[in-house]
Write a structure and sequence with these properties.
With 450 residues, this protein is α/β, with parallel strands linked by helices. The protein is 39% helix and 14% strand. It binds beta-D-glucopyranose.
Length: 450
């Protein structure tokens, strides 16, 4: 099946992955421990006691994975660089052997005609920095900028576009507020400085990258927020949730200010984290593109628990993925149109840096016949094409993910790959969605060229 989506000429097709989710080789070539190595050791933290120690063994098998990408006819590949391979202790001079790996990968991609799009931080902070407070510490922002510069020193001549952070919202909430991801802290709203310090790190790194003539993006997890009803209480709750999930990570970048978080009893300085001049450091470098990671909308009702000004409500009457996430492709259109309404000309061009769904390998069906995934992707590409037709400047789509991989707290139980991975043998087998995506890209290229 090949569907036609009216996406613009020059549109870039890609896949996304992240270091800790695929690389394995956690002790290779001087890599230092990250917070995910430590978190996976905690009894009960990750489903079935899984960890990323081996994952997809991509550190060794990357040539095979690049060949799979080439088979798809991709324009681009979004991966992440593991900070603790570059700076095992999170500071100081670069570990050359760690950078060598990313250099081999980048050169292999370029040889295959695929543009590398690295993310500098996809949640795997060096444990040494966590021991000093992690992203609760302002210092970490400055360490991040130093690390980013070391990577750019090595690869900036071959990699024109960079993503600073992946989903600072999810890292703050899951990692520091709720503790269901590394570093496993349960700070609730006291975690808010983590938002600011990540954004400050972004701003400092972005200024340096842009001064080298490189393009800078950030990949934010964004969700259109729907009130459970028209009742004033539900709408106020939806607005409060939107401020926390979306605007907290967009307004400072595009408008140079934080949203009103008074519903949370939190002032503009986010518990004292924001200092004079910081918002300029965050907004001034500017963004060459906004990476949007979209999975589903969020439905919000008035609070039932006094601790928070909202309650999450289920979205009914739609299919759900194996993860239990509602499948609402139109939410992507709603999200993008909403961003333009909110930010107008301040909104940079958009690249979808993640979108995809997990399927159930244990189910009594052929794990390679992932018609649910094809339907998911087709629906979302249709919504994206409608957004483009409505004048939104969309530049690319990177599906999550190339391979089944280590899905954080869910271990290997949620499979997001176009390619099935047998984690006992490391055998990769393309699913039906792989052929579907390949044909879709081929069709687009036949009509528009590269
Ligand atoms: C993350 C990925 C993750 C995916 C599916 C995103 O939040 O950036 O690392 O695997 O969602 O849960």
């Amino acid at each position: 099946m090949t569907d036609r989506y009216d996406l613009p000429a020059g549109f870039r097709w890609g896949v996304s992955t992240a270091a800790y989710q695929i690389e394995g080789a956690v002790e290779e070539d001087g890599r230092g421990p990250s917070i995910w190595d430590a978190f996976c050791e905690r009894p009960g933290a990750v489903k079935n006691g899984d960890s990323g120690r081996v994952a997809c063994d991509h550190y060794r098998r990357w040539p095979e994975d690049v060949a799979l990408m080439k088979g798809l006819g991709l324009d681009g590949y979004r991966f992440s660089v593991a900070w603790s391979r570059v700076q095992p202790e999170g500071r100081g001079k670069a570990n050359a052997a760690g950078l060598d790996f990313y250099e081999r990968l980048v050169d292999g991609l370029l040889e295959a005609g695929i543009a590398p799009l690295p993310t500098l931080f996809h949640w795997d902070l060096p444990q040494a920095l966590e021991d000093e407070g992690g992203w609760m510490q302002r210092e970490t922002a400055f360490r991040f900028a130093e690390y980013a510069a070391l990577v750019a020193d090595r690869l900036g001549d071959r990699v024109p576009a960079w993503i600073t952070l992946n989903e600072p919202f999810v890292h703050m909430v899951f990692g520091y507020a709720l503790g269901i991801h590394a570093p496993g802290r349960g700070l609730m709203l006291d975690a808010l400085p983590v938002a600011h310090h990540q954004l400050l790190g972004h701003g400092l790194a972005a200024a340096d990258l842009r001064s080298r003539g490189l393009d800078v993006l950030i990949a934010n997890n964004l969700t259109p927020v729907r009130a459970a009803s028209e009742a004033a209480e539900d709408r106020a709750a939806a607005d409060a949730y939107d401020a926390l999930h979306n605007r907290l990570f967009m307004d400072p970048l595009l408008l140079g200010r934080y949203p009103d978080l008074s519903a949370y009893g939190v002032g503009e300085d986010l518990h004292g984290a924001v200092r004079d001049g910081d918002l300029e450091l965050i907004a001034r470098p500017g963004l060459d593109g906004l990476g949007v990671n979209y999975y589903n909308p969020t439905r919000i009702a008035a609070p039932t628990d006094p601790g928070l000004p909202f309650t999450q409500a289920p979205i009914e009457g739609v299919p759900h993925t194996h993860f239990g996430w509602p499948v609402v492709p139109d939410g992507l259109h709603e999200l993008l149109v909403g961003l333009r309404e909110r930010y107008g000309d301040a909104l940079p061009p958009i690249t979808i840096t993640e979108n995809g769904c997990s399927t159930d390998d244990a189910a009594d069906t052929d794990p390679l016949d992932d018609s649910d995934r094809i339907a998911y992707l087709a629906g979302h590409l249709d919504a994206l094409a409608r957004a483009a037709a409505d004048g939104i400047d969309v530049r690319g789509y990177y599906t999550w993910s190339l391979l089944d991989n280590f899905e954080w707290a869910e271990g290997f139980s949620q499979r997001f790959g176009l390619v099935h991975v047998d984690f006992d043998t490391q055998v990769r087998t393309p699913r039906a969605s792989y052929a579907w995506y390949r044909d879709l890209i081929g069709d687009h290229v036949a009509r528009h060229g590269r």
